[in-house]
Amino acid sequence: xxxxxxxxxxxxxxxxxxxxxxxxxxxxxxxxxxxxxxxxxxxxxxxxxxxxxxxxxxxxxxxxxxxxxxxxxxxxxxxxxxxxxxxxxxxxxxxxxxxxxxxxxxxxxxxxxxxxxxxxxxxxxxxxxxxxxxxxxxxxxxxxxxxxxxxxxxxxxxxxxxxxxxxxxxxxxxxxxxxxxxxxxxxxxxxxxxxxxxxxxxxxxxxxxxxxxxxxxxxxxxxxxxxxxxxxxxxxxxxxxxxxxxxxxxxxxxxxxxxxxxxxxxxxxxxxxxxxxxxxxxxxxxxxxxxxxxxxxxxxxxxxxxxxxxxxxxxxxxxxxxxxxxxxxxxxxxxxxxxxxxxxxxxxxxxxxxxxxxxxxxxxxxxxxxxxxxxxxxxxxxxxxxxxxxxxxxxxxxxxxxxxxxxxxxxxxxxxxxxxxxxxxxxxxxxxxxxxxxxxxxxxxxxxxxxxxxxxxxxxxxxxxxxxxxxxxxxxxxxxxxxxxxxxxxxxxxxxxxxxxxxxxxxxxxxxxxxxxxxxxxxxxxxxxxxxxxxxxxxxxxxxxxxxxxxxxxxxxxxxxxxxxxxxxxxxxxxxxxxxxxxxxxxxxxxxxxxxxxxxxxxxxxxxxxxxxxxxxxxxxxxxxxxxxxxxxxxxxxxxxxxxxxxxxxxxxxxxxxxxxxxxxxxxxxxxxxxxxxxxxxxxxxxxxxxxxxxxxxxxxxxxxxxxxxxxxxxxxxxxxxxxxxxxxxxxxxxxxxxxxxxxxxxxxxxxx
Length: 753
Description:
The structure is a single chain. This protein has 753 residues and is an alpha+beta fold. Among the domains are: 30 residues; 182 residues, Biosynthetic peptidoglycan transglycosylase-like (Penicillin binding protein transpeptidase fold, Orthogonal Bundle), CATH 1.10.3810.10; 230 residues, DD-peptidase/beta-lactamase superfamily (Beta-lactamase, 3-Layer(aba) Sandwich); 40 residues, no CATH class. The protein contains 24 helices and 22 strands. Strands 6, 7, 8, 9, 10 and 11 form a six-stranded antiparallel β-sheet that branches. It has a five-stranded mixed β-sheet with strand order 2-1-5-16-17, with helices on one face. A five-stranded antiparallel β-sheet has the order 13-12-20-19-18, sandwiched between helices. Helix 9 crosses helix 10 and helix 18 packs across helix 23. The longest helix has 26 residues. The protein is elongated, with a radius of gyration of 34 Å.
């Protein structure tokens, strides 16, 4: 029998160890020289998308294969650094690329659990893998990864390595790097992240799909709690901060795009321009485009369009839910069914999908995608009465809810079929300050601001009246608001018996009264008096395409075709005092390093020739101020300003609703209609459907600005006249006249300027 020898065993173990070490050293000697150059790290050039900003530096859009934002390591907030180190590599600043203690800990944990539950990849190893290696699982790849990590540690500082990791790692939702992920998941820059949000993001690298808070909120929460626990145990946060972070409800963004201000239609205009000029390189080269938009005004415009169409829906009643879910009785099965049903339904311009849980006499309880239950009050029960009675709105119904601001209650609503648009610019140089081409770009890419050729209705009348002033007609000229029959030769082939909107007639009235009351019959007579062909040519001075202005008397009521962009440009002639401006939306283009490639500065309106007599413009402005003060736009008086002027517009059968208006610093046009023209519904006039959108925008755009003044030019005579007859009367109202057409230049009726 052979005797057991500990010496032999020990010699065998030592020999095995020496042999293994020799093999490893041989592998290192053979592999290390073949490792790739680290130039990709030392000269880091990631694929950077085209980024589009407002004039004041707020991101409004991006285009590229990878959604990425590179941040310098010194800009990374401490809370994010700590969260990442806690989640991925707590000894990052003390090891040399390979964490021996981490390997031993992972091995023990895996041995105890009986399965591979923990890895031991350091941040440096992950950088090596992400930049140089495939996802192949093999011993050789692991050796390469470890050797590359050592090589990286010898050539780069710890902060440089961490910076590369934070910018390169994939975090789901097409987001590369934590700066992009912070914006995509939470709609904020990294320096605004809370502890809870940083921990959620730090949990993503391990498995971006499995721990994605959009797709798997429950698993994401578990991972987040793990990271928070690690941060607490490592002393990065105390118990109080841990408890607060654990309890914080995270407002995860579910939209495919999350920007600080939304302007998808204008962003697409920029993309088309850039692609035509620079080609496909715009998607990877990190170019930046700064537009003329103002973020505050753009947000107000988006909110205005949302509010306008939500209110339009309210006026037309509840149409019913957009789907039905068979709800399990309760517990996790019900929660999962609700989440799954809502996951495929995107937020649409603030309209959130929800599932009805309960319907009571005074409230409707719904659950949102993030798991929050909200109660809709008695007003919403009343709004949905028909659908409730028909049992269409019952538990399991998939609905839309909206809250117009954080201090307002939730409302029941539905996705609108009608569309709306708003565009605003500075009359001083034509810079576009806000542009909303439709209710939601994801649903409808059609840009109504620049593509929708629609009839402007009565909002075209100011150009007819302005032409009349040039022909010697005055605001005090009397016209008969009475029936009129227009010869077929003057309408395009049919007998035309136009009527006023409200069906009433006032008899003889002044031109001023006719405009603020929007009298159709008088407008036709004004066009007759000014001359059809003269008026067409005159209107072209405002930038309208003369070929689209019909050579018929229907033009008096806005039967031409215009776009909202044309309308805002035309009204800018009034706001600028008679200058024609060219709208523009680009401010400058830079490369990724900020070097300016293109620079645009608008032409100041007051440096260009007058296209319309400034005296005419002044008088027309007073006429349009009366539209606000006592005409079809008196709702705008709620803004508490004296410098607003404009005109409502409503086309036949209520197919289009417009409001075009201005003050000395801003011109804006709002439009509401269907893509395939059809009636919006009786009573949906410009003053009802479009004016509230315009008002909501202008209230924010002009906030804090004092009332502007319209200086009366030389050659305008203020004279007191009888408002009913237009005859000079020392006790009458002040009316304005071009000097050459004034009823009298001396006497007690004359008003001192």
